[in-house]
Amino acid sequence: MKAALLYGARDIRVEQYRRPELQTGMVLLRCRRVGICGSDLHYYNDGHCGTQTVESPFILGHEFAAEVASVADGVDSVKVGQRVTANPARACGFCDYCKAGRGNLCRKTIMLGSASTKPPTNGAMAEYVLVRADQCHVLPDEIDDTLGTMIEPLAVALHAVKRSGGVSGKRVLVLGAGTIGRLVAITARAFGAVPVAITEIVPARRAKAAEGGVDLVFDPDANDFFDKARELTGDGFDVIFEASASIRALRQAFEVIRPGGTIVQIGTVPNEDIPIPALRLMNREFNYIGSQRYGNVFDEAIRLVASGRVDLRPLYSGEFATDESAKAFEVAGDKARSLKVQIQL
Ligand SMILES: [Zn+2]
Ligand SMILES: [Zn+2]
After folding, report:
1. Ligand 2 centroid to 106 CA: how many Å?
2. What spacing in Å lies between the alpha carbon of 301 and ligand 1's midpoint?
3. 17: closest CA among 46, 53, 57?
4. In degrees, to the nearest 5, what angle opens at C-alpha 241 toward C-alphas 237 and 242?
5. Which of 182, 211, 268, 287 is at a distance of 20 to 30 A from 200, taking alpha carbons?
6. From residue 345, how far is each of 65, 125, 269, 338 by CA, in Å?
7. Which ligand is nearest to the CA of 104?
8. Which ligand places an atom closest to the C-alpha of 268?
9. How does pLDDT run across 260-290, given as a tens digit for each residue?
10. What is the pLDDT of residues 291-337, one digit of tens each?
11. pLDDT of 130-173, one tens digit each?
């Protein structure tokens, strides 16, 4: 099969690769379209993502729409020819976390298109990818491949909004207007947050965010940012989502969180110690919590998009053919220009 293999930083090669073989309980998917994620960009630009390093070539891609090509004997949850997306994080299904419905915390999770396993696990930037049957989620006709490819990042946002404990009627601030920040803002609005504000340092991204899905857009570096936040909220925001992965942004969150409010960390911040204002956290009783990938929210994300409650179209920034994969990564890395860049397989 044809596949885009990442050999190291800025070295992606489109080559012939052996097609994965069907195994018990598994489904072979013919990939139709794959999105480039921030983590894919880290692997491409730096040769590593967090602590996970590219040590041998592998296939990136974990946000995708596909068609079921074949299923193992006994699999009846999906049928050949159905269009699906997949939860790329395959939890073990048996540990305490999995049994408690918190499979996103499973220590044995195998993530598609990542170097978190040795050897790395191949992803969907190829003609075919192998997943376990329960990872598949059927896409209805209302969701085309472009939107189907964005169900995975929407699931990240949806899980984060749920982690916050609910946003209905709450004053919400999202830090960072990249894909995940925008998706969190759109989801929070759909769930009744009022108002939904977003901060972003890249002017082009601020302009795009202002076009849809948020009520207010702030430049967090502007001198009057704190004054404006106070003007808008009085004592601060009820819920803040840190989606910029910036330590500076997180410091601002501690300044503008309302007493009793909740800060949700979704951005993958650098792996270093960060000072936490523990005294303020204690006497203002705010919560600082994490949000890791997604709970079991894929079908809910699909319903939100199919019904039109959540519109993913504004995040789409164009597509490239597999042979142009390197170019697709270059364009995806241009923050002024792109949010979600896709590869048509
Ligand atoms: Zn991703
Ligand atoms: Zn598990």
Report:
1. 4
2. 15
3. 57
4. 120
5. 287
6. 10, 7, 31, 20
7. 2
8. 1
9. 999 999 998 888 888 899 999 999 999 999 9
10. 999 888 999 999 999 999 999 999 999 999 999 999 999 999 998 89
11. 999 999 999 999 999 999 999 999 999 999 999 999 999 999 99
